[in-house]
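Researcher: For the record, we're logging two predictions in this thread. I'll number them. Prediction 1 follows.
Model: Prediction 1, sequence and structure:
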Amino acid sequence: MRLDGRRESTNVDDRRGRGGGFRLGGKGGLGIGAAIIIGLLTYFMTGDLGTAFQAASQGTDLTEMVSGQAAGQQDAAYEPTPEEKEMESFARKVLASTEDVWTAEFERMGKTYEPPTLVFFSGAVQSGCGGASASAGPFYCSADQCVYIDLSFFSSMRQQLGADGDFAYAYVIAHEVGHHVQNLLGTLGKAHAQMAQMSQTDANRVSVQIELQADCFAGVWAHHEQAMYGSLEEGDLQEAISTAEVIGDDYLQKKGQGYVVPETFNHGTSHQRIKWFKRGWNAGKVSAGNTFAVPYDEL
């Protein structure tokens, strides 16, 4: 992905080295990182993927499983590695691109786009949706309209999932910004209100619709990024598609516990995530992402 000479967004809050809360969850927190929690959180913390899948399917508070491991974390002066400095610049440029694309798209809809703040953190962070550790991966909090990311996540993403490449990383950020777009359009609030009145199984289905729409919006962003700047290189789209594949609920559950439990899916299968990203890429329209108008079995 060619981003040389591109502007870097200033809508950034750098909290690295400040420490933070560890309690997972909180209303309104969403993201691609939440999918990876299911397959990776306990692996990172305890080395046991199977336990993480069991906890996710039963709604267990994962804090209890890893309690004490982040307790007592002290704030310290943080010195980013050269790799993190490079990734920070990259993330700022991708965020700037989403600002350009979504500002134009909202104008076409007769609306005004208010960009999210990208929060860099290290280790753990306290958001408007509660606390989270870096193991949770990037996430969006609708309560404070921020996207949170520990940049070391990209190294873990490469090492643990084999998902690599600059456009793979851009897809992750664009997915989280997709949740922000949902929030601004009112879709996210309505979905959360519905989920609060549902059984866990039905709420999981709505969650899948939310996540697949964010994947589609990431595709919409990619479509217009290419149209505006021609920045995509050969292999870039495949990087995003490969990433979508390895964060599908079925892929992660199969990898972690050897079998899948479809009623616990809350982000979508690998096939669905690829399908909806491609749909956004091909159409380049927000209207293409109405996952809530499609029967669940046809997503």
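Researcher: Logged. Prediction 2.
Model: Prediction 2, sequence and structure:
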Amino acid sequence: MNTLVVITGPTGVGKTDTAISIAQALSAEIISADSRQLYRDIPIGTAAPTAQQQAIVPHHFVGTLALDEYYSAAQFESDVMQLLPTLFKRSPYAVMCGGSMLYIDAVCKGIDDIPTVSDEIRAQVYAQYEQHGLDYMLAQLQELDPEHYRVVDKKNYKRVVHAVEICLQAGQPYSSLRTNSTKERPFRIIKIGLNLPREQLFDRINRRVVAMVEAGLIEEARKVYPLRQLNSLNTVGFKELFAYFDGTMDYDTAVARIQKNTRVYAKKQLTWYAKDDDMRWFAPGDESIMEYILQSCK
């Protein structure tokens, strides 16, 4: 039976190297499940696989989008489901590697059939948010969809704005479109979670940020600074450096804030993964991962 091996875990834990080793052993190709590595021109800030790593094993969905292109978990699900039959003709295995939880769930569990938001509605709603702020958008969501308003993360403006967009695009409440049902897939799914003791993980994150700065992160961020309003750049690493360029944060504070916010994101990822009973946990590079995969396929 064809098998999708999912390699996930908190940011900075070592997913890419582990996935490459597993893909080599299985003669498989890698699907990147990272919502930021999709974009071109920011490989350092997104810790995208290097050209050398991609030469070892073919990677898909890395550097395929322009920074101003819209993309969603629903599109990712559709694109991956179209790609997998081709990959399975070349090998009975495919490896999906990344830490974007919604993207992984979209492929493993499916995502509700939510309409794609038009450019006109997206521009309209974001203009309202920028002009009136989050409280205004929350009031609009409460009117359009009281049920979703009760459960939405009211501090996460992206979730609130997106819900309003969907309500306007669909002409009906966002909550009425959400079934939360799991789709059946015509392939086996094996989920591998990578983790390390908290102190060790945080040390890796701190050192990786320093390495990214040494590799040219400041210069990369400065090149895209004129596009700082784009959603693709609304992410840890670039937000802090844009504040530094704006003069609202000094250099040392910006780097320290990148480290801190990356650690916070790692904790959020681990909280999300804790709800997934299908995940089997290993240390990155653990040789018993391959044994577990092959045993699971018997």
